[in-house]
Amino acid sequence: MKSFPHKRKKSAPIREGIRRDRKTLAVLALVTVFLLAGAAGFRMLLSKPTQSIGGAYMLFDTQGHKVTQDDFQGHYTALYFGYTHCIDVCPLTLDTISTALERLGPEGRKVVPIFISVDPQRDTPAVMRTYLARFSPRIIGLSGSAEQLKPVLETFHVTTHRRDRQDSDYLIDHTSILYVMDGRNHLAGMIPIDDSAEQMAVDLARVLRKN
After folding, report:
1. Transmembrane residues, as ranges (predicted)?
2. Residues 6 or more apart from 162 whose CB is under 8 A from it?
3. Nearest CA to 177 among 197, 163, 152, 156?
């Protein structure tokens, strides 16, 4: 009778290495999906008529005062939607925007940077005030109730998705684009937020000069 050699069992270190490799591949695949989804979302927005992006809004600043688009009449605004519990993209983006505007000098002072929270449950005016103090005093933080925020998200075509965590906390996936509005609150341009501060300054200058 023909005998077959026994298959050797994989040792514990080898099995652990395989598990690590599989986990790494899964994480890389997930990151790739998110990057492709973000690029697709940006292309989708670019394909929309510019007049269909942006519009009126009514929210509250970090002092609890009501703010609308009319408060910025005659000034460019750069709107970014995010939230204070964001662990990476939002703080990096706010820092990049602040640095880009500084690099533009007098031209950058034409632009009012605005951070609009997509997390009405946690981002009160007081929370927003403390959070934005870490970045630039120029950034205006706006927040509001879910009912007040909903039409703003719709008019800017911002999508959000809440992801609950085991520790009862949650994260929010959201559209990450810098919307540059002109003095009449009409869309002047959209800038990807993964640029360096240098490139973002170039992009902002291009938008300002063509309008």
Report:
1. none
2. 170, 171, 172
3. 156
pLDDT: which is higher, 18 or 117: 117
Percent of the chain predicted with pLDDT > 70: 76
Report how many domains make up the chain: 2
The pLDDT tens digits for 149-184 are 999 999 999 999 999 987 778 999 999 999 999 999
Query: Are 127 and 69 within one domain?
Result: yes
Residue 175: name the closest of 51, 88, 86, 81 by CA.
81
Instruction: Determine phi and psi for 78, rounding to 5 degrees.
Output: -120, 105
Query: What does DSSP say about strands 76-82 and 177-181: parallel, antiparallel, or unpaired?
Result: antiparallel
Q: Please, what is the angle between helix 89-104 and helix 197-210, to 10°?
A: 60
pTM of the model: 0.77
Are residues 117 and 179 both part of a single domain?
A: yes
* Structural domain containing residue 43: 10-47
Residue of 61, 53, 58 lying closest to 69 (CA atoms):
58
Asked if 68 and 109 sit in the same domain, the reply is yes
Write the DSSP string, 125-172.
HHHHHHHHTTS-TTPEEEB--HHHHHHHHHHTT--EEEEE-TTS-EEE
Going from the C-alpha of 65 to that of each of 62, 155, 180, 185, 190, the distances in angstroms are 7, 22, 23, 20, 27
DSSP assignment letter at 37: H
Q: pLDDT of 115-142, one tens digit each?
A: 999 999 999 999 999 999 999 999 999 9
